[in-house]
Design brief:
It is a multi-pass membrane protein. Helix content is about 40%, strand content about 10%. By secondary structure, it is an alpha/beta fold.
């Protein structure tokens, strides 16, 4: 149903998908197959032929109980699948033109110039700097958690190239605004295209040469300002022990592109690190970005991005604002809007499930309260990080409050000194920032806690014919999905999710979505040991763990197998996940 009034055209709508009835019927049939499977296990346990058979049946029963629990928790996502639609063409009419757009801070996180090449991070930044958004309201922050002069040098080069690239995108109304992606997909010739491509290749060559050498040579430094910034990297400056580095590379109050138009703010940040203070990985980096950006720009809307992502829809913020600026939505209750991750370049079969399609695209459309924060591609309301809607948590200094309006130039000594202070490694100690105001982790747990505070979240599926986000570093190899799940478990918050988060008064009133929390919890008890142990045990004991003969319940095995064959066929034949 579209959200509209007599005075305002609709900005978004939601409708139930036609497959909801089929999903419910399939869930009933599948449940019957699982019950038949349990019947087989129980019968084997009650009348085992040998002790080995009993042990095998017990392990299989335990494994199937856990797997059945995992399946049952996902069925809540299938019973009421909906599709959201946005109408960005109505946005300016509702908010009163582009002047009514809120300011936007973009956070890009990187940590290692060798594992995450600086040119990839540069392409991510350029793709969002070229948004069709009021430039004076757009600020891009790059968090370099590796504290590398190589990354800073790459963004010094990017700041110069942006003066040519941003006008080029505007004049040609490009959709693909990541230079690497644009030049890889464009086969058109022209003097202007060749010129901008030569500039990009020249920048790329310099950056990659510096990364290969491991240091920035004097021949690449232009001006005293760059030299002063790079001189901070001394012999005492290490990855785990260094002061905070904040460099304003572009200032929209001063810097202009080649056509004389304003350029967005571009700020480099490497927070202070010490071996005597925990840094909390990506969560710590995001917290430092929140504080530094509050001092400098304090935009009410925040977009978080991984460094291997690129945006190929220049109107992505418009689509997010169809929710974040909708007058018919209680904005105090809306915490964030999450875009699904879409991967590019995966092989046609995707036999290793490298795109995590079920996690990022299929399950969220059945979550009424919205998906969990997945660490990237998310538009946050800054206010949502300061406690529940009913009571704001005050910070120690007024400049960090979400209501604070920064005044003065972002390059002023006072503002930079204050930003240096809040980027310190011990700033969170004995403050609200270490207890009540924070990003708990780089991903899932933070989104769950936002729901616990009583806030709703929204899902924005990609538009027809284009994807809103696409990873540039792709999972081509088999180990990648397992490595990704391990990363999410250790640093993404999966191992931190406990039953207490569902009804813990410390995290807010009991508004938590129980089924969603249980679905998250199953990742903690993912039964790899149950899946691996029974087959090996049966092989060792020379026993069979599948039913023998033409029993009625053998159909359960066929049903469970046919399901995955059908899903695989659908995934190959149907490209748009919203329709199947």
């Amino acid at each position: 149903m579209a959200s509209a009034t007599a005075s305002h055209p609709p900005l978004n709508s939601r409708k139930l998908l036609r497959r909801a009835i089929l999903n419910r019927a399939f869930a009933l049939a599948y449940a019957c197959a699982i019950l038949a499977l349990f019947y087989h296990h129980v019968k084997t346990l009650l009348r085992p032929a040998t002790a080995a058979n009993a042990i095998a049946a017990l392990f299989l029963l335990l494994a199937d109980v856990v797997l059945a629990f995992m399946w049952s928790t996902t069925q809540s996502f299938r019973l009421y699948p909906t599709r959201n639609e946005e109408f960005p063409e109505n946005l300016e009419k509702v908010v009163g033109g582009t002047g009514g757009f809120p300011a936007l801070d973009v956070f890009i996180c990187t940590a290692d110039p060798y594992k995450e090449p600086p040119m990839g991070v540069v392409n991510t930044a350029l793709s969002v700097m070229a948004y069709e958004y009021p430039v004076e309201k757009l600020s891009v922050y790059v968090s370099d958690d590796g504290g590398s002069e190589l990354t800073l040098f790459a963004f010094m080069e990017a700041a110069r190239f942006a003066g040519h690239w941003l006008p080029f995108c505007r004049e040609r109304n490009l959709v693909e605004r990541s230079p690497e992606a644009y030049f890889a997909s464009s086969h058109r010739d022209g003097t202007e295209i060749d010129k901008i491509k030569m500039m990009y290749e020249s920048m790329k060559m310099r950056v990659e040469h510096v990364v290969e050498r491991g240091k920035v040579g004097e021949e690449y430094i232009i001006g005293d300002r760059e030299r002063r910034a790079l001189n901070m990297w001394t012999d005492e400056f290490t990855r785990q022990n260094h002061p905070a580095v904040i460099e304003v590379l572009l200032d929209n109050n001063r810097d202009r592109d080649i056509t004389g138009n304003v350029m967005p703010n571009l700020i480099y940040l490497s927070r202070e690190k010490s071996q005597n203070a925990p840094h909390y990985f990506k969560a710590g980096a995001l917290n430092a970005l929140l504080r530094v950006s509050a001092i400098m720009t304090n935009a009410p809307i925040i977009l978080t991005l991984d460094c291997d992502m690129c945006s190929n829809d220049p109107k992505t913020p418009h689509r997010a604002l169809c929710y974040l600026a909708d007058p018919l939505i209680d904005q105090s209750q809306l915490g964030y809007v999450q875009f699904p991750q879409r991967y590019q370049g995966i092989n046609k079969g995707d036999i290793y499930c490298g795109d995590f399609k079920r996690l990022f695209q299929i399950n969220p459309i059945g979550m009424k309260n919205g998906p969990s924060y997945v660490g990237t591609g998310c538009f946050f309301r800054r206010r949502s990080l300061f406690g529940p809607p009913s009571a704001i948590v005050q910070s120690e200094i007024p400049e960090l409050s979400p209501e604070h309006s920064p005044n003065g130039l972002i390059r002023s000594e006072r503002m930079l000194a204050l930003a240096q202070n809040v980027a310190g490694c011990k700033y969170e100690h004995n403050t609200n920032w270490g207890h009540k105001i924070r990003v708990t982790c780089g991903g899932l747990l933070h989104g769950l806690q936002a729901s616990m505070r009583g806030m709703e979240v929204g899902l924005l599926p990609p538009g027809e014919g284009s994807v809103s986000w696409g990873r540039t570093d792709l999972p081509h190899r088999r180990p990648q999905p397992d490595q990704e799940m391990g990363h999410w478990a250790s640093r993404g918050g999966l191992l931190q999710v406990q039953p207490g988060h569902v009804r813990n008064p410390v995290h807010g009133p009991p508004h938590g979505p129980l089924l969603c929390a249980l679905r998250v919890l199953v990742h903690v008890v993912h039964p790899h040991h149950h899946l691996c142990l029974p087959p090996s045990d049966c092989s060792y004991q020379w026993t069979l763990h599948l039913p023998q003969g033409m029993y009625l319940y053998i159909l359960s095995f066929l049903t469970l197998g046919v399901q995955y064959s059908i899903l695989g066929f659908k995934k190959q034949k149907i490209k748009n996940y919203k329709e199947y």
